[in-house]
From TrEMBL:
Pfam families: 2_5_RNA_ligase2
Superkingdom classification of source: Bacteria
Name under which the protein is recorded: 2'-5' RNA ligase family protein
InterPro entries: Cyclic_Pdiesterase
Length: 219
């Protein structure tokens, strides 16, 4: 794996990859919303649940991968539940944060804390447009359906919500959370509408097993 210095144009994210069926449904949703409403921010990313997003850092890529590999080595896979579309907040997304009884999923909250502890020492301050995933207790795990554009055009949210719910598409209601990936992002200007020109690369994935995490070859 190459180890570029994390220059100012680069940021990093740690994502939980959903199951293949959920990934396929999200891809179809994102492409449909791009075609129907011109929304591009969610389609700019691979399907994912953010564990840490758009983190600026001066740490090398090798150090980031080492930190994640060490932290995840003792992290077991767990069942994640998709409880459907959440109607609150600014964006639109599927709720992955909770158990069917409405209480927080301890697997998700523990994984968020693991990533936060691993990355917080090398994270530079960031002006995230929502709650920072590195701030404990302020972030809810989710699968985004429509995101950044709704902050600029909030009047579209009710129409898009009705449109998505009208599709009647049902994602898998649960999946095994077992794949965590490190991604590199690049934008010429992180203070503009960066999702319109952002590019990304997969750096490395780790498979969470019942007793340990195993590093996978970089794609």
């Amino acid at each position: 794996m190459s180890a570029p210095s994390a220059a100012s144009s680069f940021r990093y994210g740690v994502f939980l990859r959903p199951d293949p069926g959920t990934c396929a449904l999200l891809t179809d949703l994102h492409l449909l919303l791009r075609q129907q409403y011109g929304l591009v921010s969610c389609a700019a990313y691979p399907p994912h649940a953010t564990l840490m997003g758009n983190m600026p850092t001066d740490a090398s890529e090798d150090e980031l991968a080492d930190r994640m590999g060490t932290a995840l080595a003792g992290t077991a896979s767990f069942t994640t539940y998709n409880l459907g579309i959440e109607r609150g907040g600014g964006g639109i997304g599927f709720n992955l944060h909770d158990l069917p009884d409405g209480s927080p999923n301890p697997g998700i909250t523990a994984l968020l804390d693991t990533v936060r502890r691993a990355m917080a020492p090398v994270a530079k301050p960031m002006d995230h447009y929502r709650a920072n995933p590195l701030d404990p207790g302020r972030f809810r795990a989710h699968l985004s359906i429509a995101s950044h554009e709704l902050l600029l055009r909030p009047e579209l949210r009710p129409e898009i919500l009705d449109f998505v719910e009208g599709l009647g598409w049902e994602p898998p209601r649960s999946f095994m959370a077992d794949t965590v990936s490190l991604f590199r992002f690049r934008s010429a200007d992180w203070h503009a509408q960066w999702w319109r020109n952002m590019t990304w690369d997969h750096v490395r994935s780790w498979r969470l097993e019942p007793d340990a995490a195993v590093a996978l070859d970089a794609a």
